[in-house]
From TrEMBL:
InterPro entries: DNA-bd_dom_put_sf, HTH_17, PBP_domain, SinI_DNA-bd. Coiled coil: none annotated. It comes from Dehalobacter restrictus (strain DSM 9455 / PER-K23). It comes from the Bacteria. Gene3D superfamilies: Periplasmic binding protein-like II (3.40.190.10). SUPFAM superfamilies: Periplasmic binding protein-like II, Putative DNA-binding domain. This is DNA-binding protein. Keywords: DNA-binding. GO terms for molecular function: DNA binding. Residues 102-287 form the PBP domain. Residues 7-54 form the Helix-turn-helix domain. PANTHER family: BLL2305 PROTEIN (PTHR38431). The keyword NADP does not apply. The keyword Methyltransferase does not apply.
Length: 313
């Protein structure tokens, strides 16, 4: 991240996958730096990165704003804290957590990528993992990774939504970027997602199929932890291309979206916990018309099979 772009409260909320009220709470508590232009609250990209860095070093606290656990990894935590923890980075999970709190379930959020989410479920640090990991050997989402990362653990995979993944490019696509093969060009600079993010796995799997090493791509080692941040980097000209989902492309000026892959975004729970009141309440919520209607006007979400059992492993 850099200092080049002033971010609004909504921009920062999208980057951290939380509500605007959570951002205002962070400002009030002095946990994130901001400034004002007239009556408008603004942030630099470094302010957001500094907050993320401090959160990674800080304690794992159920008292975080709006029931969040902060935008940091769970891998250093020895055991799961009190509360029902849903892990993943999409806005849909924040709304799900809010619905569960309305049903008197203390639902907490942990904001880490798909790979680390599954590892955290395996280590019993969370209750629900979310994942959108594509396996090139089977052309299948999530099931192969659940088998590998939760060995010997009976699990249930529940479908949440489908989203379109693709490429963020500058408005008008001046460099004519259209396929994964374009990452092998000498005139392309990219910006990457962090290790374990579904978008990064999708990129790496396609590069493997093409025989392209990431280390040969300019910008491959430059990472960021949100779709919005990498889309903003393309918008500002810091990079020519990044991988992300279509919904974020609609929120950022001066970029186009090249659709490449319809992905499945699923929830994973341990089978031994499937009949608990918390999991059954969660299932009833995501199958309800009221919850599905939350996304009717947002765009970028296919909720037709929401709540369907994908597999029992």
């Amino acid at each position: 991240m850099g200092e080049k772009k002033a971010l609004s409260t909504q921009d920062v909320a999208d980057m951290l996958h939380v509500s605007k009220s959570t951002i205002y709470d962070l400002i009030k508590k002095g946990e994130i730096v901001s400034y004002k232009v007239g009556r408008k609250v603004r942030f630099t990209e470094n302010d957001v990165q500094d907050y993320i860095s401090r959160s990674k070093k800080g304690p794992f606290s159920p008292s975080s704003p709006s029931g969040t656990l902060g935008a940091f990894s769970l891998l250093g935590i020895e055991k799961k804290q009190d509360g029902f923890i849903i892990c993943g980075q999409d806005l849909i999970l924040d709304i799900l957590s809010n619905y569960m709190r309305l049903h008197d379930i203390h639902a907490l959020r942990a904001y880490i990528g798909s790979y680390d989410s599954l590892v955290s479920l395996y280590k019993n640090k969370i209750n629900v993992a979310s994942t959108h990991l594509w396996d090139s050997d089977t052309d299948q989402y999530n099931v192969p990774y659940v088998r590998r990362l939760l060995p010997g653990i009976p699990t249930v995979i529940i479908h949440l939504t489908c989203r379109m993944q693709g490429l963020y490019v500058a408005k008008g696509n001046p460099k004519g970027i259209t396929t994964w093969a374009d990452f092998g060009r000498d005139d392309i600079t990219m910006i990457n997602r962090e290790f374990g993010a579904g978008s990064r796995v999708l990129l790496d799997e396609n590069l493997k199929l093409l025989g392209i090493y990431g280390s040969t791509i300019r910008g491959y080692k430059k990472e960021n932890q949100s779709h919005l941040a990498v889309a903003s980097a393309v918008s500002s000209g810091e990079a020519d291309v990044a991988v992300g989902n279509e919904k974020i492309a609609r929120q950022v000026d001066n970029i186009d979206f090249i659709p490449l892959k319809k992905e499945r975004y699923d929830l994973v729970v341990k089978k031994e916990n499937f009949q608990t009141p918390e999991i059954q309440t969660m299932l009833n919520i995501i199958r309800s018309p009221a919850f599905k209607n939350e996304f009717a006007n947002i765009g970028g979400y296919d909720t037709s099979d929401m709540g369907k059992i994908v597999a029992e492993i």
